[in-house]
From TrEMBL:
Residues 10-235 form the AB hydrolase-1 domain. Transmembrane segments: none annotated. InterPro entries: AB_hydrolase_1, AB_hydrolase_fold, Sec-Metab_Biosynth_Hydrolase. This is Pimeloyl-ACP methyl ester carboxylesterase.
Length: 245
């Protein structure tokens, strides 16, 4: 189908441990609807990346990488789509380049708070956060992906999807989840839609009365809705992109 250049450019940013491949089927579905969509692999998550390459990447590198991609798309505004870790990236890009970003869509994303890292909001308590930091440091700034045993208890994943992830997930640059975010304005002042996998996964900042430029929706799923409910995810994004024009 011919691309509709009246709609925004949609850029998908993978979450931790993943490359562009996790979003490629969604991109294909949107392109079949005439939407100009693309995905990218964040630095340090390229296939075969060395341990030294992974360890050197910082959160600011990912923000700059996505910003550079947007600046090359000077013809139209963009919609950024984040998932989990990459909400930290997408929201910081939108903070810096609001004139290029018409809105953002977040699937169970971590959202940045100025001066705080992803790990500062990780897990159920300080003990879990301290252990996660220690594990990353012990692995020389590599954040290990969930093992196959952890994927096996994800109820929304089919056996094929569990194998798919287990075979492709790679260590994530540890600095990117330890580095504090840098925000000029609070994230709740941006325009965005938060897609939560359950009502309990909506960030507290978006439940505040002053988060008036955000919409919150619930799409019941596990942590990988693009695998578990691919058609629903694509349709939802297409609707949101259409309403963003």
């Amino acid at each position: 189908m011919r691309t509709n250049l009246d709609t925004p450019y949609v850029l998908f940013i993978p979450g931790a441990w993943m490359g562009a491949w996790i979003w490629d089927p969604t991109v294909d579905r949107l392109r079949s609807r005439g939407i100009d969509a693309d995905s990218l692999t964040l630095a340090g998550l390229e296939s075969g990346a060395s341990a030294s390459r992974i360890a050197e990447i910082r959160l600011a590198d990912h923000v700059e990488q996505v910003t550079d991609r947007l600046l090359r798309r000077v013809d139209r505004p963009a919609v950024l789509v984040g998932h989990s870790y990459s909400g930290m990236v997408a929201a910081q890009v939108a903070d810096r380049r609001g004139e290029r970003t018409v809105t953002s869509i977040h699937f169970d994303s971590f959202l940045p708070v100025n001066g705080r890292s992803l790990i500062d909001g990780w897990g159920p308590d300080d003990t879990a956060r301290a252990q996660e930091r220690t594990d990353i440091l012990d692995a020389h700034y590599q954040w290990a992906p969930p093992p196959a045993a952890a994927l096996s208890v994800e109820p929304g994943l089919s056996p094929e999807n569990r194998r798919y992830l287990a075979e492709r997930l790679t260590p994530h640059p540890g600095h990117t989840v330890l580095d504090p975010a840098t925000m000029q304005q609070p994230v709740e002042t941006q325009r965005g839609t938060y897609i939560a996998s359950s009502p309990g996964n909506v960030p507290g900042a978006l439940a505040a009365l002053h988060a008036e430029t955000w919409h919150v929706r619930v799409l019941e799923s596990g942590h990988w809705p693009m695998l578990e409910r691919p058609d629903d995810v694509a349709s939802l994004i297409a609707d949101l992109v259409g309403s963003a024009t």
